[in-house]
Amino acid sequence: MRVVGFTGASGTGKSHRASWVARERGIQYIIDDGLFIKENQVIAGYSAKREKTRVGSIKRALFTDDGHVREVVRAIEQHKPEAILILGTSDGMVDKIAERLGLPEVSERIYIDEVADEFEIKQAIATRREQGKHVIPVPTFEIKKDFSGYFLDPLRIFRRKGKLSFQPEEEKSVVRPTFSYLGSYTISDYTVYQIVEYVISSIDGVSRISRFRVENHPDGIYMEIDLVLRYGFPIRALVQELQQKVSDEVERLTALNIRQFNVTVKSLVVEK
């Protein structure tokens, strides 16, 4: 197995360029911040970005937890990659990760200043320092279940196809981990209610909301709602449409995962 190291200081844009660096060298698999990634899919691991402290994040990225190591090693054995790209902030970190995962010695080393110019690196560092944003080189849907409320944003990368023409090339995810900013991120129940009320008001067949309840949990939110519908609409189809639209809009606007959304139709009204 060929093991390639990709090294650069924290916040210089390694994860942003990881997919491109791997593809240029014919590598399908990446180890980045505790995750084992194949192209645009997370195969195994636990993201260091989910840790609550910076120290915890570093330990996670270095695979200090034996259970974490076993999970990733098992996945590597199953996939049998011909080559793996390991991201790290130093040569020592890359070597340590390879050792913890039982991989061969690093045979090639790539450095961030070889694939990004000075302006791009400074821009990446400023974004990390001022906004606390971190990039994970997989699409948002791949990791959203693990990042409820962490300000998840999709970052679509465009490749120049010709003059004034750009073609979507790949999607990455931008997260703002707990350890990267002061205070915790919360959204009030009333704000969630207002979003739900707004979406429901646009659905023909709903008269009003008679009861609304929401519970916040670390893995996402649980909602219950009682409705009064207008007579003459197919109830099951209407409720399914409502559940889908409300779920999509709440997740889009808050980055919170909806773990459960129960709808009860309490009564019908006949309107002129």
Give the CA-based shape: elongated
- Strand runs, count: 12
Helix residue percentage: 25-40%
Distance N terminus to C terminus?
Answer: 73 Å
Output the structural class. Answer: alpha/beta
Strand residue percentage: 25-35%
Q: State the major sheet.
A: 6 strands, mixed
Q: What is the tally of helical segments?
A: 9
- Poorly predicted regions are 139-143, 149-169
Question: What does this protein structure show overall?
Answer:
This protein is of the alpha/beta class and 272 residues long. The chain folds into two domains: 2-180, Rossmann fold; 189-269, 2-Layer Sandwich (Alpha-Beta Plaits). Helix content is 36%, strand content 32%. The strands form three sheets. It has a six-stranded mixed β-sheet, with helices on both faces. β11 (220-230), α9 and β12 (258-269) form a beta-alpha-beta unit. The longest helix is centred in the last third of the chain and has 20 residues, at 235-254.
Summarize the structure.
This protein is α/β, with parallel strands linked by helices and 272 residues long.
Write the layout of secondary structure elements.
Layout (H helix, E strand, L loop, with lengths): L1 E6 L6 H11 L4 E4 L2 E4 L2 E5 L8 H8 L4 H14 L3 E6 L2 H10 L7 E4 H4 L2 H14 L2 E3 L3 H4 L9 E10 L2 E11 L13 H13 L4 E12 L2 E11 L4 H20 L3 E12 L3
Parallel strand pairs: 1-5, 1-6, 2-5, 11-12
Antiparallel strand pairs: 2-3, 3-4, 7-9, 8-9, 10-11
Helix pairs in contact: 8-9
